[in-house]
Amino acid sequence: MRRSPETFVARLRNRKRRIIVYSTLLAVCLGSLVLYWHVSTSACVNLLARETEEPAINAVLSHQLIIGIAFMQTMMLLLCVCVGVLGGTLIVNLTAFTKDDLLVQLWDRVQSLEKSHAPPASDRQ
Hints:
Layout: H1 5-13, H2 15-46, H3 55-95, H4 97-116, H5 121-124
């Protein structure tokens, strides 16, 4: 099924909003990635045995920390994939922005010319 030109032009006009949304999501993903990295590195430091801790407590806590660190590393990997996808789509939208804006302006000019050169209603019959 072929889309109408009006829906295509409406989609091209919506590109500014998509660029803003992709930029915001990219910033949120990068912030989350930095936060997960900080928490993950501090958890890895806590794996080291300290002189004041009992070995039994360290053995129990280290197993729980390892599971938590593995979960955080998985989340960081997923966030890295999201950052890559969002960065790619943002680059594609930014590079095509000028071309699409020119196409929308051309469409508006054609529509205004069609309206100005439309025959009167009595001539159509």
